[in-house]
Design a protein that fits this description.
- Keywords: DNA-binding, Transcription, Transcription regulation.
- GO terms for molecular function: DNA binding; DNA-binding transcription factor activity.
- This is HTH arsR-type domain-containing protein.
- InterPro entries: ArsR-like_HTH, HTH_ArsR_DNA-bd_dom, HTH_MetalResp_TranReg, WH-like_DNA-bd_sf, WH_DNA-bd_sf.
- By secondary structure, the chain is mainly alpha-helical.
- The chain has one domain (2-108): Arc Repressor Mutant, subunit A, CATH 1.10.10.
- 60% of the residues lie in helices and 11% in strands.
- It has helices at 2-14, 29-36, 38-50, 56-60, 67-79, 98-115, 118-122; strands at 54-55, 83-88, 91-96.
- β2 and β3 (91-96) form a beta hairpin.
- The N and C termini lie far apart (42 Å).
- The relative contact order is 0.15.
Length: 124
Amino acid sequence: MMTQINKHLKKAQKGEDRGCCGIPGIPDSRFLKAVSDSTRLRILAHLVEAKKPQIVSEIAKSFPIDFSVVSRHLAILRNEGILLAEKQGKEVYYSVRYEFLSSIFRGFASAIESCCPPKERENE
């Protein structure tokens, strides 16, 4: 999985990543689907507020859903490169990959602005 993320980042750095629509900076649909789920967004917000990596059981305590459902959401976020999962002994600690998320959203904002400059948006 990490090689897939690294490949994506290297392409983006070289300007070779054309995004999902052939437009540089537009994230693919899997990434957008991962961040469009309200539970996953709440999990992300929880990890940001925690300010430190957490294990599944710590995260699950904050949500009224089954442990296995939280674990599945974490796997989706990890697979899209949004979360980092680090194994320490028997536990897996999850944390937000801030640099990766920032680069994705900056690229997305740039792609939108290049298609619709601020001057054009003012007339809407």
